[in-house]
Design goal:
This protein is α/β, with parallel strands linked by helices. It has 3 domains: 104 residues, Winged helix-like DNA-binding domain superfamily/Winged helix DNA-binding domain (Arc Repressor Mutant, subunit A); 110 residues, Aspartate Aminotransferase, domain 1 (Alpha-Beta Complex); 239 residues, Aspartate Aminotransferase, domain 2. It is built from 17 helices and 16 strands. β9, α12 and β10 form a beta-alpha-beta unit. The longest helix has 28 residues.
């Protein structure tokens, strides 16, 4: 193990004390972990070009302070527990450092301090209704591995940097063709920009467009990732209520602000699941054209509609270049495939491509090559058809279980689409108490309260069902009904 340690031989502080201080900070900062073995005194002395006696002095000092311990015949180790007084002083130093750091941050940096970390680890539950996770065990990984291997063997350009930040052009062609036939999106391949997931897509739109103080309209309830992205840019956010027809366009039109953006999920509103009706789509497009407001259409899981005709994308109805379309493969393939795409108006191609180049130059070429073949050879749409059938079955099991075990005590919200449903449960318990009681019987739930601008709604929960087997779904709803009977 090599330790990154700098010793100042011109300092008046003895070398052994400098070394002890460096090791002490490495322990307190977590770079050296509890029970981690340190190099022998001989090895460390040789590495730092100092005497072995100097290293031994440092080790002995830290042993006396309770940071290190010598294990007979095994060597020197970091103690399993660190002195509390040092930890306390370290915490104070950290707070002071953070306080001083905030004075040098940009407005964007300071805005991020108040942004909640979105990826929160959840306790392990036997049955988790976590939303958004597809049934990855049904993904044909062997086919995907074959395509990756094909390009690892036969693509010498894979090792070179691509000059086109907008993405591998043959992939953009395949995506444009797919969107045209499946979502009625009107675009050329040049308008498709490959990004690292839909969250980067939102960032690449927000940064060139929003100045601090600009106004953005958002659905209420709505997607937190978009809310925090725009807030990080210093935008003022205006929540617009969602009703049975989707975003309330009349309420939006009554607002007096001059909006730069309006963010919508029209095909399957998140989290309520309702679909923006045709009348509301037309009204929204007319309002955007009149007010010169840009619409961000997040089409995150529109491939999954059950027993109904697909709803054409809002972008395909747009005739004024008012819509930027956002899509992702994480719901249709697997979450760790960080490939998404933007469809931008013609006048935005150069701007968004430059923003992408400044962000990370380009998305991974290997995955782009494989995904191009995956779509071109028909694997993608065959996989979608298989999963649509599976998810429809699981959705039906979920709804039937609710009807069997809850009856009139529940209301299922939203359209017959997506891979989650939002359910209102009549109960006298708080959402936190319901979640706690459910966890007690091995069922994981997520409340919809935090997705509202003012979280005063009670009894609404988001049930993701795609990743659960039918027996798990029914068992989970049965357990939930039992703990909510009283």
């Amino acid at each position: 193990m090599d330790l990154a340690i700098f010793l100042d031989r011109t300092s008046a502080i003895p070398i052994y004390q400098q070394l002890a201080e460096k090791l002490r900070h490495a322990v307190l900062e977590g770079r050296l972990k509890p029970n981690q073995k340190l190099p022998s005194s001989r090895t460390l002395a040789k590495s730092l070009n100092i005497s072995r006696f100097t290293v031994t002095q440092s080790y002995e000092q830290l042993e006396s302070e309770g940071y290190l311990e010598t294990r007979c015949g095994a060597g020197t180790y970091v103690c399993s527990q660190i002195p509390d007084d040092w930890l306390q002083s370290k915490a104070i130093e950290l707070v002071a450092a953070q306080s001083s750091r905030s004075s040098v941050l940009s407005q964007f940096g300071n805005n991020l301090i108040s942004v909640k970390h979105l990826e929160v680890s959840e306790p392990e539950n036997e049955i988790s209704f976590r939303y958004g996770n597809p049934a990855v065990e049904f993904f044909p990984i062997s086919q995907w591995r074959r395509l990756l291997s094909r390009h690892c063997k036969n693509s010498p350009t894979l090792l070179h940097y691509t000059p086109d930040a907008a993405g591998y052009f043959p992939l953009r062609v395949e995506i444009a063709n797919y969107l045209g036939r499946s979502r009625a999106v009107r675009c050329t391949p040049e308008q498709v920009i490959i990004v690292n997931g839909s969250q980067q897509a939102l960032n690449l739109i927000a940064r060139p467009i929003l100045d601090p103080g600009d106004w953005v309209a958002m659905e209420d309830p709505g997607y937190l990732g978009a809310r925090y992205c725009f807030r990080g840019q210093g935008a003022n956010l205006q929540p617009i209520a969602v009703n049975s027809e989707g975003l309330d366009v009349e309420a939006l039109a009554r607002c007096h602000q001059k909006f730069k953006l309006v963010y919508v999920t029209p095909s399957h509103q998140f989290p309520t699941g309702v679909t923006l009706t045709l009348a509301q789509r037309i009204a929204l497009l007319q309002w955007a054209q009149t007010t010169e407001t840009l619409i961000i259409e997040d089409d995150y899981d529109s491939e999954y509609r059950y027993g109904e005709q697909p709803i054409p994308a809002l972008q395909g109805m747009d005739r004024s270049q008012s819509v930027i379309y956002v899509g992702t493969f994480s719901k249709t393939m697997f979450p760790s495939l960080r490939i998404g795409y933007l469809v931008v108006p013609l006048s935005w191609i150069s701007l968004v491509s430059k923003a992408k180049w400044l962000c990370d130059r380009a998305s991974s070429l290997l995955e782009q090559y494989a995904l191009t073949d995956w779509i071109a050879e028909g694997h993608f749409e065959r996989h979608i058809r298989r999963m649509r059938h599976l998810y429809n079955l699981r959705r039906q099991v979920l709804i039937e279980a609710f009807q069997n075990y809850f009856g009139s005590r529940i209301t299922i919200l939203g359209a017959n689409a997506g891979i989650h449903v939002m359910v209102k449960i009549e109960t006298g318990l708080s959402d936190d108490m319901v979640i706690q009681k459910a966890a007690g019987v091995g069922v994981g739930l997520i409340s919809a309260r935090e997705y509202y601008w003012k979280p005063q709604h009670q009894g609404e929960f988001i049930f993701g069902y795609a990743q659960l087997e039918e027996t798990q779904i029914e068992q989970g709803i049965f357990k939930l009904s039992q703990i909510l009977e009283h």
